[in-house]
Here is the input.
Amino acid sequence: MSTVRLSKYENIAVITIDNPPVNAISQAVRQGLVENIQQCETNDDIQVIIIHCAGRTFMAGADIKEFGKPPLEPHLPDVINIIEQSTKPIIAAVHGTALGGGFEVALGAQYRVFDKTAKVGLPEVNLGLLPGAGGTQRLPRLIGIEAALDIISSGKPITATKAQSLGIADAISDDDLLNDAINFAKTIIGNSLDERRLCNQSVDAVSENFLDQKRSEFAKRRRGFEAPQAIIDAMEAASTLSFKDGLKRERELFEKCRNSDQSEAQRHLFFAERTSLKIDDIDKTVPVRNIETVAVIGAGTMGAGIAICFADAGYKVLLLELRQAALDLGLKRIKENYEGSVQKGRLSEEITKARLNAISGTTNYNDLSNVDMVIEAAFEKMEVKESIFKEISRVTKDDCILATNTSFLDVNMIASFTKIPKNVLGLHFFSPANIMKLLEIVRCDKTAPDVLQTAMQITKKIGKVGVVSGVCHGFIGNRMYQAYQREAGLLIVEGATPTQVDKVIKEFGMPIGPFAVGDLTGLDIGCHMRAALDKSQYEEKAFTVHSKLVDQNRLGQKSNAGFYDYPNGPRKGDPSKLVENIIIETSKELGIIRRDITDQEIVERCIYAMVNEGARILEEGIAQRPSDIDVVYCNGYGFPRWRGGPMKYAQMIGFEKVVDAIDGYSKTVGPRWWKTSSWLKDQA
Ligand code: NAD
Here is the structure.
């Protein structure tokens, strides 16, 4: 069957696009559209044309297979122009999700009829782009600059109901879209076409300052991202230039974004996030285990978040604490979290009630006898994990999956406490667990393939981005983060200040610098973690100041003082004279002569240290691919998406340059931590 075909219903032509699975706008689709429209134009019997798609969706967007290749004619903007200039009215009959180019095609049509479940959107901003086939010029002409900017800059799809209220959909079909579109077609025969062509419309004026306000708003809220600013430029063009010149401007802005490092980085992440759940050595057809009920051990910060996360995804959750008081506290925390969502209008009371009903509590391990999976989120101590895993291994079914949320502990050892180690793996959530996207799936030596496959499926079901990690101290994310914190800690005893390091790292694009993060999470947590390590495993000099602060009960925001002072609450930390003195005194004790440290050195030391550790993680086979590391960093640690993650950043800077810098620090800072990984050398 051909990709684009024509059928007739009396005087109405239906052009059907049939390019499974999502009707991507391939060259064949573009060509077919043009040919069929031309055929309809020359056929006097035809009075209205409907563009309709077979399968589950209207055209979902550009054809990924054509990405990065020289564009093939006819180009999409030209096809849309032909649709818009058609001498016979064209109706786009939209169902499923019409994103990007798909929505732009619908905007080229003179009328739009939507299935009631349809969604449309322009998600290009997520790839560091803007719509490049007239979307930025037609949409504001249809619904005004404000609403158009909202849709284009957020990249989020809108529903058919919203589309109708904005004036995007002319009619909504409740049942049979094609039939309803044909009936709609009969009502528009003879209407003037000129006023239906968006290219002929003018844009409603917005307040003078509106675009400037948006520029500064995006500079804060979408700090570092270029595409949202380019989208505002395109909106400005829509409001000040003719349609033709506006399209030209859109093209210039589109080309600039497409050729930018940011877009390359964001496109890299787009594919990386789709690849990370694939495990190279596991057969995809391995049957997964059926998971309906999940037990969570520990109802603290992480346990409560994990329970919410599973209840949100439709699982039954059983929360276990040793004492009733702790259980009550955890359940209260969960209830308050849901109530907050209701107050903010994010959830209905009804849904909240159902989710709360799905979560029950117990203090008795025997109640776990029928659960399908257990996730342990108790204290970070091997003795605690040992007693819990022995107990859950005793009470649960033989096919129950046993997971730990440990941040640093050896999951192979944890597995060894159980009767069936192949059922054990790590599921490392990030805080807050119900919000943060990342899930590190820690594969132990003995984890069974079906356990991993099941974990992958669950990851998708709970809406997370999953990355598989092997067992090592801190897995992928925290292990690299330790290298980053180590260099930050060394930099302050060598001569920088926490404020300087934090400022430079924030300018690099991280949401917050390493010392502000320490204050946020609590300096005591790192100290406890290091206390369990052998001194050979970390650089003591880098954390001497941290330990001194903890000794003085400066634990961070929770004690109103850490690296910074928080006289007015946690929102803003002020530099502390006392901390400055502690740092200077520490430098002296360590025999370090303080020196001026450049911003470039701060970025290189913190980021390249992380990159080098990432490279070692690849060498050791802990991560499957460099892009997985980027997924971890952009989804769990706030690494700027527009830089594509640490490994992509290194590639874009040039591996050779990174290796040279690391070799240099090996000489100046010392070779203990600055040994260039052979993986990096190979890349260079
Ligand atoms: P938390 O102190 O907030 O909560 C731990 C809970 O476990 C407490 O409510 C405690 O009463 C309970 N508990 C302790 N021993 C228990 C036992 N034997 N049986 C049942 N319940 C028990 O700690 P948290 O921050 O939620 O961390 C939990 C785990 O998650 C740790 O392994 C930690 O390393 C890991 N983790 C924490 C974070 C984070 O940001 N907090 C992030 C990722 C992973």
User: Anything to note?
Assistant: The first helix runs from residue 27 to 41. The longest strand covers residues 4-9.
